Amino acid sequence: MSLSQDASGQAARHAELCQDIDDANYRYYVLDDPTLSDAEYDGLMRELRELEESHPELVGPDSPTQKVGAPITTDFTTVEHVERMLSLDNAMNSDELSAWGERVEREAGPGSGYLCELKIDGLAVALLYQNGRLVRGATRGDGRSGEDVTNNIRTIAAIPTQLTGDEVPELLEVRGEVYLPVKSFEELNAALVEGGREPFANPRNAAAGSLRQKDPRITAQRPLSMIVHGFGAWEGGEQPQSQAEAYELMRAYGLPVSDRYRVVPGLSEVGDYIRFYGEHRHDPEYEIDGVVVKIDQRAVQRRLGSTSRAPRWAIAFKYPPQEVNTRLLDIKVGVGRTGRITPYGVMEPIKVAGSTVAYATLHNASEVKRKGVLIGDTVVLRKAGDVIPEIVAPVTGLRDGTEREFEMPTHCPECGTELAYQKEGDVDIRCPNARLCPAQLRERLYFVASRNALDIEALGYVAATALTQPLEPDEPPVRNEGDLFHLTVDRLLPIKSIVREQRTGLPKIDDSTGEPKAVTFFANKAGEPKKTVEKLFEELEKAKRQPLWRVLVALSIRHVGPRAAQDLAREFRSMDAIESATEEQLAAVDGVGPTIAASLKDWFAVDWHREIVQKWRDAGVRMEDEGAVGPRPLEGVTVVVTGSLERYSRDSATEAVQDLGGKVTGSVSKKTGFVVIGDNPGSKYDKALKLGVPILNEEGFQVLLENGPDAAKVVTLRVDE
Ligand SMILES: NC(=O)c1ccc[n+]([C@@H]2O[C@H](COP(=O)([O-])OP(=O)(O)OC[C@H]3O[C@@H](n4cnc5c(N)ncnc54)[C@H](O)[C@@H]3O)[C@@H](O)[C@H]2O)c1
Ligand SMILES: [Zn+2]
């Protein structure tokens, strides 16, 4: 390629990038309806900047690298800012941050201190206060002039229309970020979709779209808020010498200033702040996309000055994006351990937050509706840390009419049984084939091994699949969880099984063959048991000695989670006692109630359920807790605890009473046996006095536990009347 051809190619690419970025700016800043993700946009900007660095002759005043925001082409009146509102330069990693820090310290000298604050993902506004009165609110626009949104700004509760204090500046131009709390964003989108309108792609666009409404009454309905992050003109009143001083003055005027900013001496502390919020990114109620680092001293800020686009004394450290755009290829459903059907999105695989994502959860059919996503949509996909990837919203600007609505299937994807609601009023539709549905069996077996149940580490998802639905042999060694404790080594060795993706239950595909991945899970190449076999048997032995409540949880009885199981075990002490208890007796247990009681009765009424219990019992699984025949000296006694005790937490006090057959409740009545008071007892103490209920201090409580109610009556506090 000749030199001139190369140059014209670069110029063409430059023009193309400028055009694409201008288009994206328009969609983002004017329409509040971007079609690119921020990551894609930043990629284009980066390419443009690199191109301009190697070909400075291409840089013109109209290049997006030289400008702030987008030209204003809206229905709002245009107003000029008193001082220009700039954007920020970015550092994408710690090297770029150090390079910036070294540069400013070289030019300005070290030791002026850095102010660190969160980079809120909202939209910048300028508020003009004259003698303390809010006279104007405007968007950033192109930095010189913005849109007059005064009436809309006035609807935001966090923004005072009148500053407080006697010595407010004559003229103050406050800058800050208007945002919509993440939670409100989800609610707003749901309401928009419900009303047949298009949802916003993310909280930032929702905030921008809500503020930039022609009708301020609509803005007023959106729970927007604001946080101050700077100022322009500041005439009269006390003059701040530093950014932090300015914030504290503005806080005193009644403006919303964050508690999360810090002034630190050097770059290493800046690094600590960045790391901290990298790990606590979702603590604030608003979305953040990074940290802004500013030189704190205003004298130094002035010395460093600004470029046409951004101050030299500040930099935005951007966190890796957690949101990307990708296609929602299909919506499928998975089957849970109780037969519950949950839809999930099949995504065009994409890398986000360090891993490739191909599936995203959608929780239930109404969630799909609430989010307003259609199959075929480009969607905003979010993956935050270890959290399961989630679809945020569709990018409606990219629809071409071929998208279609998701319809809930009528039959189970794994066993073909017709789906049904188990009870009237249920939210979730289920596969009723609990006994034989391979999906439910696999999920239940996997659950038996989970940490909340019997905690069998060697029994993971692959093993659960291999045991319940092997490719070979034909007959699975585990037909239901009853068989688990009757396994033998020779039944395990021949097993060949496909590997399933835990989140969806779908077979994993072997990249080299394109076929589902199959493994011989328990035997090595020589046909001998792998290490995991020995481990499995060891852990099965251990599992047999787990306490009763874990055994109960492992049975996958609807509504019987660890809490309820513990309450049941404490009260009844044995599986037999629970099985033979009446529904009323079950429901009377503290923390159990009628729903769980009915569910238990239903469960034990099924033959094959009782068989599971029997098989476990035969194999030596523990079916009763010690102390089953222990004394219950507090039987029929109700205790209320108020204030803080020295030797007991609220939970351990409750447990101590329950272990002796007593009951702990939250409110005092005539039927209350004793009220135990610690430090700072509340209104329950007064009520006990009024009703004449016996009152115990901590020593008296000890007597109650050790010697019973009669002994405790003797040591009740005598209250002088
Ligand atoms: N997806 C798209 O199509 C598209 C289009 C245009 C812009 N964008 C996004 O916007 C970015 C560029 O926008 P920008 O020019 O507003 O720059 P920016 O968002 O990178 O940084 C400047 C802005 O940060 C905000 N900010 C938040 N907290 C702040 C704080 N504590 N101190 C100071 N400022 C704070 C202010 O609004 C300020 O104007 C891009 O990197 C991209 O992420 C996306
Ligand atoms: Zn099924």
Average pLDDT: 91
Termini separation: 104 Å
In the CATH hierarchy, the third-tier topology of the largest domain is known as: D-amino Acid Aminotransferase, Chain A, domain 1
CATH class of the largest domain: Alpha Beta
| Percentage of residues assigned to helices | 25-40%
Strand content: 15-25%
| Biggest sheet descriptor | 5 strands, mixed
Q: What is the gyration radius calculated from CA atoms?
A: 33 Å
Q: How many domains, as an integer? A: 6
Number of helices: 24
Shape label:
globular
Structural class: alpha+beta
- How many runs of DSSP E, i.e. beta strands? 22
Relevant terms:
22 strands, 35% helix, 721 residues, 6 domains, D-amino Acid Aminotransferase, Chain A, domain 1, OB fold (Dihydrolipoamide Acetyltransferase, E2P), 18% strand, Helix Hairpins, alpha+beta, single chain, 24 helices, binds nicotinamide-adenine-dinucleotide, five-stranded mixed β-sheet, binds zinc ion
